[in-house]
Amino acid sequence: MDLGISGKRALVLAASRGLGLGIAKALAAEGAHVLICGRTEEKLKANCAEITAAGGTAHYVVADLADAHFVDTMVTAVSDKLGGIDILVNNTGGPTPGTAEDMNAEKLYSFFQSMVVRVITLTNALLPQMKSQGFGRILTVASSGVIEPIGNLALSNTLRGALVGWNKTLSTEVAGFGITANLLLPGRIHTDRIDELDGANAKRQGKSLEEVRTASVKTIPAGRLGTVDEFAAAGAFLCSTPASYITGTMLRVDGGAAKSL
Questions:
Q1: Which family does it belong to (predicted)?
Q2: Radius of gyration of the chain from Cα atoms?
């Protein structure tokens, strides 16, 4: 299938590794010109080199979602390096594990800024151009925790949940401009983040990493962890021209793990 995004300009947040990088590679493979951001220049350079070597076009900008100037930095980078925007992939790092009782005002405020405020304000800053050109794709990576809260990830469940109401509201407001807004929900996709979370759970439960991983996989009907490439392919499709009538949705990529309808 031709996704119809060759030559489109895409900004992918938090693309130093993992899911963000996977989506950036998938978009570049379809001919999109990608701009990736992250905190580590060495990783970003290497990622761009890999994308370029595979025949794609990639640029990078060093930026931290926790920085108060993040939105201004990204708007300037989009203009300077891409000359405009067609596709925005909102992706953020996950917060520290913990229970609901572990949350306090300092943690809530800090992660709310980087995971919610920056996503919304950057999207709003880039929307005018999408509206003027009559095309836009806004894809926000959240978590399966917005469907079924994940144990020991109370901060993530809480803050990513806020993006659900925002995305649905936004999608109805911009649909008439040829802009779609969707959430992509990863289940157990094998990334460094999953390894870190499994390690934290193993320590908390007094078990080995292998024991925790085996128990987790048993809850997945597909019988395995998902791959970044599988997740990224779903993301690329939601950013495509054929997906123009899909908006305001939440797509789970979880191997059937969620038990809700």
A1: Belongs to the short-chain dehydrogenases/reductases (SDR) family.
A2: 18
Token reading at 93: 């790092």
Structural domains counted in the chain: 2
Average pLDDT, the chain: 96
Torsion on CA atoms 225, 226, 227, 232, rounded to nearest 10? -160
| Buried b / exposed e along 25-55 (16+ C-beta atoms within 10 A) | bbbbbbbbbbbbbbeeeebbeebbeebeeee
Domain of residue 27, CATH code: 3.40.50.720
Q: How far apart (Å, rounded) are the C-alpha atoms in residues 250 and 167?
A: 9
Residue 98 contacts residue 149 (beta carbons within 8 Å): no
Neighbours of 179 (CB within 10 A): 23
CA distances (Å), 249 to each of 25, 163, 180, 232, in order?
23, 12, 9, 17
First to last CA, the chain: 29
Q: Quick check: 257 and 219 in contact, CB under 8 A?
A: yes
The pLDDT score that the predictor gives to residue 212 is 86
Please give the model's pTM, rounded to 2 decimal places.
Answer: 0.95
